[in-house]
Heme A synthase
Amino acid sequence: MSNWLLSICALIFVMVVVGGITRLTESGLSITEWKPITGAIPPLTEAQWSHQFELYKRIPEYQQLNSGMTLAEFKSIFFWEWVHRQLGRVIGLVALVPLVWFAARKAIPNGYGWRTGSIFLLVCVQGAIGWWMVASGLTERTDVSHVRLAVHLLTALFIFGFTLWTAFDLRSPGAEPRRVPTIGLWAFAALALQLLFGAYVAGLDAGYAFNTWPLMGGELYPEAAPWLEPVMRNFVDNPVTVQFIHRWWAFVVLVLAVVVARNVKAAGGRRESIFLHAAIGIQILLGIWTLLSGVSLHVAVAHQATAVLVVASFVAAVHRLAQAGQGASTALGTDRDDGRTYVPLIPSEVEGP
C-alpha cells in the first residue's frame, strides 16, 4: 500500500510543476468550463477549437489583455491548462481504484481506512477548489484570485504531506501510526506560512515588484511603497509587503530546518538531515535567483517544484523523529500519571533510534 501512496505523491509533484507552468504562462483561464468527465477529451476538430476560442473571447482576460491573440497562440495556453486538469483526473483515478481494490480484499490495516479514504476525498475537494479558483477570473477580473490560488496550492501540498506521512507510517515497524512531535508542529506551521506567502507572491505577480537582493530598491522596505488601509490588507493584497515577508520568513523556516535536522541526525537520521539541509538551502537560492532573473519561467518553475521537495524533506525528517521518539518511550516503559505510555515530544529527550 505504501507504494501506491508514494505514486500519488509523485503525481502530485508533477501536478504542482505543471500548475506552476500554467500560472507563469497565464494559461489558467483558457478553459472556461468545468466538465470533470467530458472535459477529458480535448478539441479534435477546427470547429471545436473555434468554439473553445470563442468561449475564451468572452472573458475579461482576452478582452483586456489578449485581444490580438491568434488561434495558434490560444492552443498553446489551452494545452497547459488541459494537461493540468488531466493530471487531476489521473490522480483521482489513482487514488480511487487501488483504494477500492485494497478495501475489497480487506487489505487495509486497522486505522488506515479513514486516512486512505480521506486522501481520495481531499483529491476530489481539490478539483472543486481548482474550479472555484478559475471561476474567480471569468467575469470581472483578468486573473484568478490570489487568495483562492493560495487555498488551491496549500491544499495540494497538504494532500502531498498527509499522503507521504501515511506512506511512511505504513513502512514503519508494525505499520504503527506516528504522532507529530512538538518541534515538527512548529516547523510545519512556519513552513505553511511561508508557502502561503509564496502563493500570494505568485498570485499578485509580486515577484516582479523588486528584482534586487537583499534590498528592495536600495532599502530594506521601500518607504515609497503604497500602504493599504486597513493595515491587515497589506499582508494579503500588497505585492511589496507580501514579497518582503516571503523574502525574510524563509530564514525563520531555515532556522527551524536546522533545528529539526540537528535533532534527526542525533536520532540516527543522517540521510533525512542531509535531505532537509539540501532542500531548504537550494530553495532559498532558487528564490533569490527567481527575483534576480526577473521571474524567469524555468527558474520560477524550479522554485515551485523545490517547494514540494522541501515539504517532503520536512515530512521525512519529522516522521523519523516521531518514529525514534515513540520507539524510545516504549522501550523505557515510562508512564504518565494517568497511566498512558509517555511519548516524548522534544527530540532531544531521545538518545537514539
Residues 327-353 have pLDDT under 50 and may be disordered. The CA atoms of residues 137 and 143 lie 5 Å apart. The longest helix spans residues 297-332.
